[in-house]
Design brief:
Blueprint: H1 13-28, H2 35-62, H3 67-70, E1 76-80, H4 81-85, E2 94-100, H5 106-118, E3 123-129, E4 136-141, E5 144-152, H6 167-170, H7 175-193, H8 197-213, H9 226-239, H10 245-257, H11 298-321, E6 341-349, H12 352-374, E7 379-384, E8 389-390, E9 407-417, H13 428-443, E10 453-460, H14 470-477, E11 515-519
Parallel strand pairs: 2-5
Antiparallel strand pairs: 1-2, 3-4, 4-5, 6-9, 6-10, 7-9, 8-9, 10-11
Helix pairs in contact: 8-9, 8-10, 9-10, 10-11, 12-13
Length: about 525
C-alpha cells in the first residue's frame, strides 16, 4: 500500500517570505548559471549529438551499408542526471547516454568514436573507464565535463521518440547497455514522482549546496552521491506536495535527522516490495531496486547523521524562532580547524589534458589510502575532505626561462592518533603502500609521463598555511560568523583558497613529517 502523505497544507505568507530569502542566499553562492551559460550547455549537447549521428552513419557505411540506408539509422545523445533534472550548478558535469542501432557495437564506441572525440579541438582529458558497471567516456568539452555511456539497441533504426521504459525492448539489451539505460529511467521516474518540479529543483539545489559546503557530498570518496541526495529530497517533496522550498528544506532535516537507518529509504510508490542489499545508509533507487551507498562507512555515516542534526537545529532557528538566517546553514564546517594531523596529497602535471586524467585516477584511489590508514592500529579516525583545491600559481604556461610551471591539485585528509604520544609515528610505510597501489593500478593504462607526479605529506595543523590561503583558514576558524545575513559578499574563488605558493618544507625527520612522492601514469582502462 502507498504511504499516506504527511501534509497537504498550503504555504503561509511567512513560508513564501522565507523561500524568497533562501533564493537570495543561494544566488550569493554563485552556483546558478546565467542564460548564456545554459545556452552553452545546449550547444555542446547539440554538437555532440551531430557528431555521434555522423559517426553512426560513417561506421555503417564502412560496413558496406548503402548510404541511403545509413542516413536513416539515427542515433541520439540523451542527457540524464542533474542536468536533465534541472538542478545542477555551474560547475557540474553532464551525464548522457549515446544510443545506437543494432549494427554499431560497443567496441566501435570505445574504439573509433573515442578516437574521434580525442581529435576534436574542444576536447581535453578524454579517457575511457571500462571497469565499472556502466562503462563511460569521460572528457571536458569546451569547458564542461561530460560523462558519456553507451547503449546498443536491438533495433535497425533509433527512433527520435525512443521509449526508455519499454520493457519489451529492455529485455533484449546486453547487460552493460541495460545498466546504462537505467540512469535515464531513474531520472525520468524521479521527475514523474515529484508533485511540483520547480519547487523540487530549488529544494534540491539547496540541499546539494549544503552537502557540498559541509563536506559530505562525494560518492567516489565514500559520502552520499548526488543520486542519493536527490532521492531524499524527492521523498520529502512527495510527503509535502504543496510546501514551499524553505518548508521542504526544514522538513528534509526534520525527517532524516530522526531516520532509523536500519530501515531503507524508499520513494512513495504503489509497489514498495523492492529487494535490495542492506548498507549502512540504504537509499533505494527506483527502477534499479538497489542502492548506491555501499561506500559509506560507520564513521562517515556518523558524520552525515551529525550534519543532519545540525541542519535540523539551524533550520529550526530559521523557520521557527527567526533567530538565524539561511547563510548559517551553509557555514564552513571547520575541517581545517578540527584535527591536529593531516595528510596532504599534491597531484601535478604540466598540461590540462594530462592533469584532468591524472587527478581522476588519484581521486578514485583516495579511499584506498583511507583503508590503509584505518588498518594502522595507532590511527583512531580518518576524515577526507571531498573538495579538490587548485593551486593558483601553478600554470601550464612556459616561463621566460624556458621551464614549465606545473598544474597542481591538492586533497586533504584529517586524522587522529589513538593516543597523544602516537603523534611521532612514522607513516612512511602507509603512504608508500598507497603510492604503490596507485602505481600498480596506473601501469595498465600505458600513459606514464615524467611530468605526472604525486606527493603525500604528513603535516600538522599549523603547517596548513603553507598550502591554503589565510582567508580560508580564518573562515574555518570561525565558521558561523555573520551566519544570519541574507545578503553577503562574493565568496573567495578557488584561486583564493590555496596559499600564494606551496612552500618548500623545512628539513624534518621522517618521524615528524614523512614525505613520499611517485611518478605515475594517469587513468586505468585507457589503452
Amino acid at each position: 500500500m502507498a504511504e499516506v502523505v504527511i501534509s497537504l497544507a498550503e504555504p503561509t505568507p511567512e513560508d513564501l517570505q522565507s523561500t524568497s530569502e533562501l533564493e537570495k542566499v543561494l544566488e550569493s553562492y554563485n552556483v546558478l548559471e546565467d542564460p548564456s551559460e545554459r545556452e552553452h550547455r545546449k550547444e555542446i549537447l547539440a554538437k555532440l549529438n551531430t557528431l555521434f549521428r555522423q559517426w553512426v552513419r560513417d561506421v555503417s557505411i564502412a560496413q558496406n551499408m548503402p548510404a541511403a540506408v545509413a542516413d536513416k539509422l539515427g542515433g541520439t545523445i540523451y542527457p540524464f542526471g542533474s542536468y536533465r533534472l534541472g538542478a545542477y550548478d555551474k560547475n557540474a558535469d553532464i551525464d548522457a547516454i549515446c544510443v545506437a542501432p543494432r549494427n554499431v557495437e560497443r567496441a566501435d564506441y570505445f574504439g573509433s568514436f573515442f578516437e574521434l572525440l580525442k581529435r576534436q579541438p574542444e576536447v581535453i582529458g578524454c579517457r575511457t573507464v571500462k571497469s565499472t558497471t556502466v562503462p563511460i567516456i569521460e572528457m571536458k568539452f569546451d569547458g564542461i565535463e561530460i560523462d558519456l555511456s553507451f547503449a546498443q539497441l536491438k533495433l535497425d533504426e533509433v527512433p527520435d521518440n525512443f521509449d526508455f521504459f519499454d520493457e519489451t525492448q529492455l529485455d533484449e539489451y546486453d547487460h552493460k547497455s541495460q545498466h546504462s539505460v537505467r540512469g535515464v529511467q531513474v531520472t525520468e521516474q524521479i521527475l514523474r514522482l515529484v508533485p511540483n518540479i520547480d519547487t523540487f529543483r530549488l529544494t534540491l539545489r539547496v540541499i546539494k549546496l549544503w552537502a557540498k559546503r559541509r563536506g559530505i557530498y562525494s560518492h567516489i570518496l565514500g559520502y552520499l552521491s548526488g543520486v542519493s541526495w536527490t532521492l531524499l529530497v524527492a521523498r520529502t517533496c512527495q510527503l509535502h506536495p504543496n510546501a514551499t522550498a524553505a518548508t521542504l528544506v526544514h522538513n528534509f532535516f526534520l525527517e532524516f535527522s530522526g531516520w532509523d537507518w536500519s530501515q531503507a529509504v524508499k520513494q512513495i510508490t504503489d509497489n514498495e516490495n523492492f529487494l535490495v542489499g542492506f548498507c549502512l545508509m540504504t537509499i533505494v533507487i527506483p527502477i534499479q531496486r538497489r542502492d548506491n551507498t555501499a561506500n559509506v562507512s560507520h564513521s562517515v555515516r556518523q558524520m552525515i547523521i551529525d550534519e543532519l542534526h545540525r541542519g535540523k537545529e539551524v533550520t529550526d532557528e530559521i523557520m521557527l524562532t527567526k533567530a538565524a538566517g539561511w547563510d548559517k546553514l551553509f557555514a564552513a564546517p571547520g575541517f581545517f580547524n578540527k584535527y591536529r594531523h593531516y595528510i596532504v596529497l599534491l597531484v601535478s602535471s604540466n598540461n590540462a589534458n594530462d592533469h584532468l586524467r591524472w587527478c581522476g585516477l588519484v581521486e578514485f584511489k583516495i579511499l584506498t589510502l583511507i583503508a590503509i590508514l584505518k588498518r594502522n592500529p595507532q590511527i583512531a579516525l580518518t576524515h577526507v575532505n571531498p573538495k579538490r583545491f587548485e593551486h593558483p600559481e601553478h600554470t601550464s604556461k612556459r616561463r621566460s626561462d624556458g621551464k614549465v610551471k606545473q598544474l597542481c591539485s591538492l586533497w586533504f585528509i584529517g586524522f587522529e592518533f589513538d593516543k597523544p604520544e602516537s603523534s611521532n609515528v612514522d607513516l612512511t610505510k602507509d603512504i608508500d603502500d598507497f603510492l604503490d597501489n596507485v602505481r600498480v593500478n596506473a601501469v595498465s593504462s600505458k600513459l606514464l609521463k615524467n611530468s605526472m607526479k604525486i606527493e603525500a605529506r604528513h603535516v600538522e595543523q599549523e603547517q596548513l598555511s603553507e598550502y591554503l590561503h589565510p582567508n580560508l583558514l580564518m573562515r574555518e576558524s570561525s565558521p558561523d560568523v555573520n551566519s544570519g545575513a541574507t545578503t553577503r559578499k562574493r565568496l573567495p574563488s578557488d584561486d583564493e583558497q590555496t596559499a600564494p605558493a606551496v612552500q618548500s618544507k623545512k628539513a624534518r625527520t621522517d618521524s615528524e613529517t614523512p614525505t613520499t612522492s611517485s611518478e605515475s601514469p594517469p587513468d586505468p582502462d585507457n589503452n
